[in-house]
Amino acid sequence: MKGKINIILTGVGGQGVITAANILGKAALKEKVNVFVSEVHGMAQRGGSVNCSVRMGEVSGPLVPSGTADVILSTEPIEALRYISYSNKNTKIITDINPVIPYTVSVGEEEYPDIDEVFKELSKYGKLYKIDAVKISKDAGALITKNIVMLGALSATGILPFPPDVFLETILENIPKKFKAMNRKAFDGGLKAIK
Amino acid sequence: MEILEDTPGKKILLLGNEAITRGAIEAGIDVATTYPGTPSSEIADTFSLIARSLIKQNKEPSYYFEYSVNEKVALEIAAAASITGLRALTCMKHVGLNVASDAFMTYLYVGCKGGHVIISADDPSCHSSQNEQDNRYFALFGNAPMLEPSTPDEAREMTRVGFDLSEEIKLPILLRTTTRLNHVRGEINLEKIQKPRGKGHFEKDPMLVTVPAIARLQHPILLEKINKAEKISEKSKFNKIINIGKPNGWGIVTSGVAYNYVKEIAEDLKLNVRILKLGMTHPIPRKMCEEFIKSCKDIVVVEELEPILENQLKVMAYEINSKVKFYGKSTGHFSRLYEFNLDIVADAFSKLFKIKNPIIKPKESKIKLPSRPPALCPGCPHRATYYAVKKAAPKTTIYPTDIGCYTLGKAPPYEVADLLLCMGSNAGTACGFAVSTDQKIISFMGDSTFFHSGIPPIIDAVHHNHDVVITVLDNRTTAMTGHQPHPGNEFDGMGRPARKILVEDVVKGCGVEHIEIVNPNKIKETTEAFKRALEFKGTSVVVSKSPCILLENRDKRKRGEKIFVYEIDQEVCRKCKICISRFSCPSFYYGDDDAIFIDSQQCNGCGNCADICPFEAISPKEAKK
């Protein structure tokens, strides 16, 4: 593959961000595309903000440099904004619209910003796509498929070096039989949400 | 399992740590040992997972694996295995090598027989560590040959080849990695799996007993071995020169993960440079480096943390009367702090080569975002212990703490972490505070930390009658690093039955006269126990026993038991806020008009909030989905 693809996946611990990044890596490998996936483990993982880099093509460094993300894929709105330094004006910012309120806000120590202001701000930085991944995943069968909804939306951008049907095939290979139908629905839901 | 497939040429995606395990399996590993620690944990966890899954299928694993009690014991076990001719591996986080260093330094005098690869997983930027020490110094300190991989596949290959090198040089090899290698997934090219040796044989040899007369004989032998290793380093395929563009006198010397950044930025900026990529960095290939120095007018050294290559190259340049100019840490182009990335290398190169920096960071958003700091999980028994402690102890109490999830007790409202040095330091520093102050002292350590290095300071406390309360937070696992078993469990790292050792039995054996054993979920009783321990003049130990809620709930689900989430009766709640601001469980949140609710998604059903509510407004409601 010529050129580079830089993808930032962000969200909150427990939303399947690392799993999504891993599946993306496996799909690239299957399509014979050079790929690096960078993850967070250990103390950084406990209930915190999560960010993974997925880089494909003519790349050597495992982390996406500032201002070079082709896509920021976020399972939570403010987490997209937290990692906005990876964006440039051509970046496609895809975020779930449903906030996950941090504990620091729940107990009144800090404030969660006005959600419409967050979206307005995000659209200043790149091309913003808002999707209700919570609803799509629940319609597909379970909230746990939310990360697959996000991967469907990512595939719809056309940024990946493989088409959605090939990507979906790899995703389903990595999922137990009884959950395949649910995840297929989730992926299709995400795909349509962007188109 | 894909990682066990003997299919040379096949490409699979693996985490750097899994790739190291694969490399060892390809080399026919016989004995692997560890004490878990981020960012090294998944190397050993992969050995454990493979062994457990084989044993479940009634198949015998081809190697012996254990989570040892600490890194020193892990190294000693593997060293003895190697001396009997077996291939051995020991993995640990960087600070683990401090613990193992006593064995490490003299093991190098004695040397090994079967190949032995010791992995030190360094953590530049302290992602999950108490310091960012550069363990390449250990290779120089003890004279251990060292390999530094740049990518997951190189980590696999270096591990595999490391065993051969170790047997050739007769020294253990230090494979030094960093977080950005351990926790990066990349393409792995599988090679053939060799058969393990199975059983070793120990042949007696007086040279193995390092009494002074023998040690004096062994030291020159070690230096001879390192001279031989230098010759190997000169020819090693891991040390190579890569030309980018049409080199015009500029050279770059780099190693480890930094190489990836150098290569990508040099290509992107279309530089004309020679890159000396060092993979075997101790002993450094002197002749190769001297030739490289002679071929350059200017040399940039790009290495994370300490200027180890930079200083060695400067000495060489001096010795060959070279006038080459060096750029790196000493010129301020690179920092001795934190891990590097493409941004940092691009910034330095754009200054050095007078090219516009291609990486442009957008302006930061002015919207203030709330933080998401790591916190004790909902239902964590440590929270209950801390709540009881704060009820029992006077305000001026000193709280020495230790390494584990419970270090998160540093955050408000608990603030029960006043000093942290290393594994086991809670009890030792507690004794120090006891001899230095009149303040009350309550220290905390986990059960795995207790077995690791928490026992000797308890013996010290008892012997000298230090007036301290030492708490062992016994949640029956090594939680923070991924729930690895320890000597307090009835099974081992291969999933086989093991003798369970009780913390309280050990403490009793140490001669502690005042021992309190509590279930922290009974908060009132726990508070009383801490009060009694504080009143006792001398050394007391509180063993606070309750399993990690994540494990407990996993087991409950396996058994088909229901987990009931709790709910606040809004009619009864008087908004005293004890639950949310003093007990501070992350599943609590404020709704409209300061009404307090429990998030049923987050609640793990421990029920401690129901105990501490003065108005009995909280009760179990529905089974968690």
Task: Give an account of the 3D structure.
The complex is a heterodimer of chains A (195) and B (625). Helix content of chain A is 41%, strand content 18%. By secondary structure, chain A is of the alpha/beta class. Chain A has a single domain (4-96, 114-194), classed as 3-Layer(aba) Sandwich (Pyruvate-ferredoxin Oxidoreductase, domain 3), CATH 3.40.920. In chain A, helix 2 links the parallel strand 4 (71-74) and strand 5. Chain A starts with a strand and ends with a helix. The mean pLDDT of chain A is 94. Chain B is an alpha/beta fold and 625 residues long. Chain B folds into four domains: 2-235, Rossmann fold, CATH 3.40.50.970; 240-352, Rossmann fold, CATH 3.40.50; 381-554, Rossmann fold (3-Layer(aba) Sandwich), CATH 3.40.50; 562-623, Alpha-Beta Plaits (2-Layer Sandwich). In chain B, helix 9 links the parallel strand 10 and strand 11 (273-278). In chain B, helix 9 (258-268) crosses helix 12 (342-352), helix 13 (381-392) packs across helix 17 and helix 14 (425-436) packs parallel to helix 15. The mean pLDDT of chain B is 97. The chains are: A alpha/beta (195), B alpha/beta (625). At the A-B interface, helix 1, strand 2, helix 2, helix 3 and helix 4 of A face strand 1, strand 8, helix 9, helix 12 and strand 20 of B.
